[in-house]
Amino acid sequence: MHKAVVTHNGVSKQKFLNNYQLYQEGWDTLAQARFWQDVIDLTHDSMIVNVASIRKPLMKVATSQWHCLTETEKNSYKQNLCIYNSMDENTNIFVTSGKKFFFEYKKVLPLISRSLPVFEALEVDPWFAQAILVIESPGKTEARSYVGARGPFQLMPYVAKQYGLVVSKYRDDRTDLEKSAAGAAKLIKNICLPYARKMLDEKGIAYNEKDLWFRLFTLHIYHAGAGNVAAVINKINPTEGGMDLIRTMWRTEAAGFKNESQNYSQIALASLINFDRLLSQHKDTVFMIQGDRLLDLYAKKQTKPTDTLAYLNNCLSAYECDLVDGAVPFQYFVEKTARVRKEIEKYNIQHGYATGYLAINESERLHQLGNELMYKRKFNEAIEVFQLGIEKNPIAPATYDSLGRAYRLIGNHDLAIKYAKKSKEVIQNPGAFLKLKP
Predict the structure, then answer these.
(1) Average pLDDT score over residue span 13-29
(2) Could you tell me if 63 and 69 are in contact, meaning their C-beta atoms sit under 8 angstroms apart?
(3) Alpha-helical segments (H) within 85-173
(4) Which domains does the chain have, with CATH numbers?
(5) Rounded CA gap, 113 and 399, in Å?
């Protein structure tokens, strides 16, 4: 299917794949898929307490509160939950933090459209390109895992070199989308698919390579390696494939096939569902910048909000999310949010509301936005946001302090010390930081 993708600098037609099997066969109704959808939609300041074996959510807790507990208190908390929910007190309970910050689906859109033809040219099912890109460090072409995998397809160094990519101190082709896509396609074609066929043939299991369960099975080999998947299959000793086999793999450990490996196809399903949701929000069009969509509707009077101020504040929130998601550059964000704030000011004046609080309100929002960018390790963008916040409200000590932390994290210790001092000075003498108008 093709979609018109609207960005800050134009409109382009991009190709994506339909995941109809996922819904026809009921994969979207599985508890594990729904659980990971919730996790992906959840911000990092919250966690879901859940039953590990079936990923049944029990409750949500604040991340800060959970981390304040001792290990003894955490264990006691879990045992009490088991008792309250009439479960065996030895039930394995996980506490899973929100992953919304990690899954940047909007940034994946152009990567998928460019990767599909690479897989097709190498005669590899392009479904794997789309699936891997929405799972493995989505939108982060430079990402490196703790085991050394890197790039949009998270290839290990030895795998990349095996398929012709250069990986050295001075050059790493794994960060090149087309080269990385070709390496991943060759890995699937030469290793993953042959081993998937071999394992299933040895068990006498019939399969169609276009079936979703077979694709998920192959994905497990891509992620965990053929040896670990063979170990779990030998332990299960299945006689049939299908959804039941995949679900049994989710509950079975063998060799290196443990929790992270079990989660992989669960997260794949959740990611594909969430990605489909992004693609289908506005029929044949995908708006990369939700702030623009809302503001354009308002400017063209195509919407008549019952609460204009709430609607305009939603526009600001949308632009803030767009910046955090990497959908817009900083200067574009500044120009567009300034336009929204002018609309807010105009509305307030027309209705006799006070406007003096707007600069303080903007400063507070910018401080919170900067901290969100810091959490996503977007330090340079955070610095620009904090600087803008200080411009709007020069007597905000928390913003000076956050700006100092941001500079420290990028290695600029002189500016880190400078703004840490300013944070203390503005508390002691705020008047010195106010620009007096003539």
Answers:
(1) 96
(2) no
(3) 105-121, 127-135, 157-162
(4) 103-280 (1.10.530.10), 290-433 (1.25.40.10)
(5) 40
Q: Could you give the CA distance from residue 115 to residue 182 in angstroms, rounded to a whole number? A: 8
Q: Which position has the token pair 């190498």?
A: 122
Give the confidence band of 302 by pLDDT, cuts at 50, 70, 90.
confident
Residue 121 has pLDDT above 60, yes or no: yes
| Residue 62, both tokens | 């604040």
The dihedral of CA 282, 288, 292, 296: what is its sign?
negative
> pLDDT-based confidence at 438, cuts 50/70/90?
very low
Would you call 378 helix, strand, or coil by DSSP? coil
Q: Which two tokens stand for residue 263?
A: 């989660």
What is the band of 355 on the pLDDT scale with cuts at 50, 70, 90? low
Contact 133, 112 (CB under 8 A): yes
The dihedral over CA atoms of 281, 285, 289, 290, expressed in degrees to the nearest 10, equals: -30
Residue 295 in this model has a pLDDT that exceeds 50: yes
Helices of type H across 136-258 = 157-162, 177-187, 193-202, 212-224, 226-236, 243-250
Q: Which pTM value belongs to this model?
A: 0.89
- Point out which residues pair with 50 in neighbouring strands: 57, 94
Residue 209's identity, in one-letter code, is E
